[in-house]
Amino acid sequence: MWTEIDNSLCRSFRFADFRTAFAFLTEVAAEAERLDHHPWFSNEYNAVEFRLRTHDAGNTVTRRDHRLAAAIDAVAARYATPPS
């Protein structure tokens, strides 16, 4: 589940291994480009963490962040990733 913390939508994902996590991030990058909204993320081995907020709106959560969160969830579903 996405949670709102410090004016950001946050969520973490875990994958089977680094290769899968990186493939997931590659697909998320394509979605971010399509939506013209680029997230902060961290990746360490099989763990990926996101923080979404809109800089143009004073670093707050906007509809753009919710759209990107939904797109990230759709990508994660293709990798059969349970929420973490």
From TrEMBL:
It catalyses: (4aS,6R)-4a-hydroxy-L-erythro-5,6,7,8-tetrahydrobiopterin = (6R)-L-erythro-6,7-dihydrobiopterin + H2O. Its EC number is 4.2.1.96. Keywords: Lyase. Belongs to the pterin-4-alpha-carbinolamine dehydratase family. The keyword Lyase applies. PANTHER family: PTERIN-4-ALPHA-CARBINOLAMINE DEHYDRATASE. This is 4a-hydroxytetrahydrobiopterin dehydratase. Pfam families: Pterin_4a (PF01329).
